[in-house]
Structures are given as structure tokens and as C-alpha cells.
Amino acid sequence: MRTPKRLRKSSPTDHRARFLKRRQVSPGPSAPALRKSLSSSALTLRTLMITAAIRFELGDHHTYDFVEGHLPSEMFPTLREVISATDDFFSYADIADLDSCLRALDHLDAYVMAEGPFDAILAFSQGASIAASYLAQRMQRDPDAERASAPPFRCAIFFSAPAAYDLDSLKRGHFRALTRAVDGELIRIPTAHIWGRNDTTIDAATVSGLCAPDTAEVYVHEGGHEVPGVRMNAAVRSSVQIIRRVISTATYGQ
Fold first, then answer.
1. 97 part of the active site
2. 199 is catalytic
3. Could you tell me if 101 and 165 are in contact, meaning their C-beta atoms sit under 8 angstroms apart?
4. Minimal CB count within 10 Å: which of 92, 105, 144, 156?
5. What single-letter DSSP state applies at residue 14?
């Protein structure tokens, strides 16, 4: 179904939403590739496992479109407790190949245009970095048009987002992380930012700093580079609480 279901108005915490779900299990080298995970049952199963506790707590009235990278990569070390190390792992882009990072943004845009609209994007790790970069580049490219047009997503949920990257810098052959101090406020839809206090691999506050502060929700759990799961019941409940607030803000402005 290409048109999102209408969000019900029965209560502030009971909404229908269509999510575009991006999941990344490794930031290691690979080429960019975006596709529905339904084309690979094994990939879908692992994605379902990683996000199962969050989706269960959110309820079964949401629908999800899963998008995966599909070229080989190494497993991120902190996921050893969640996924078997004998599985295959994939990335969206090769961080050593800046052209692949540009193509990943183009592929995401093409996917959204073909399969959207979506109520929200929910993304983890490198997927969250690509999603945040995509939203930021739209504002950088044409601020007036972006303010006047409907956004590709009504809200965004980022788990363990490393950074959002400047498109022009990528085109010139180097990475530059976007910051509020240099680039200002670039993501104006409601956002949720969830990361682990013990995650030493990222500075997740960088992405939250790019977002409109009055509609940005932040939750820092006691874990690492991960989506809160079945062994983190309190973190799951707190994560879902701010996700619901973000959906409510996107829907009703409250």
C-alpha cells in the first residue's frame, strides 16, 4: 500500500503510522544498496528480531516497510548478544568510498518517491546517519521550497545515529559532520533520539542538535550501540514513550 493509513484520533497515545524502517548492523565497508527486506526472508527475520521489543510495545496498529543494505560487511561488535556471528551482515554504503555515500542518499530519495509517502522513518546506526543526512540535505539544497512543501516524513526516530554529513563536502571528497554551530537547524520535523550511555562509538547528540529543539525528544539508556530489546524492559518502555510523543506531535501538534 503506497498511501499511509490515516492516523486515528481516538487518544494521544493510540496512532496508526506507516514507518520506513532502516536498519544497519555494521558500519564496515560495503557498497550502497537499498531494497525492501521482503526480498530476503533472512534479512527480514534479523531486522524483526532487533526491533521486536520496540514494535511490540508500540502495538500492532502500525505498518512497516523494511529497507536493507545488501552487500557484505562485518558485524558491529556490540550486536554479538543479539545476532549470531555466523550470520551475514550488510551495509548501505562504503564509508571509504564517498561516491557510494552519495549514491545511498540518491537511492533513499528514489525509494521514498516511489514507495511513499510515509508517516515516519525509524533508523538505526548507519541507517540513521543516512536518514538524518537525507533530511538535512533537503533543507540545505532549497530551504524555501522545503519549508513550503510537505516533508517526505512527518517525523523521524533515530537509534544510535553517528552523525549527519554535509552533501557538498562529500562531493568534494571528504566527510564533514553537520553541526548546529556551523550549519544551524536543518531538521524541522518532530524527532526522537535514542542512544546508549555506554556507546563509545558515536556522538549521537550531534544529530539531535540539528533538529528543532521544541519537537526533539531525547532518551539515553544504559546500554551501548543497540536498539533496546527484551533484556532492557525499562529502556524499551521509555523509548516507546518518546516515540509516541513524537508521533502525537507530528499528528496533532501537541
1. no
2. yes
3. yes
4. 144
5. B
Set 199, 208, 239, 248: catalytic member: 199
Q: Is 88 a catalytic residue?
A: no
Within 10 A of 203 (CB to CB), how many other CB atoms are there?
15
Of 26, 37, 100, 125, catalytic: 125
In tens, the pLDDT along 136-181 reads 998 888 777 667 677 889 999 999 999 999 999 988 988 899 999 9
Phi, psi of 151 (to 5 degrees): -70, 160
Which residues 6+ apart lie within 8 Å of 84 measured at CB? none
Residue 195 near residue 204 (C-beta atoms within 8 A): yes
- Catalytic pick from 166, 208, 225, 239? 225
Cell 543494505: give the residue.
69
What average pLDDT does this structure show over 4-14?
A: 34
Please, are residues 71 and 91 in contact by the beta-carbon 8 Å criterion? yes
Distance from chain centroid for Cα 147 = 21
Q: Report the distance separating Cα 115 and Cα 12, nearest Å.
A: 27
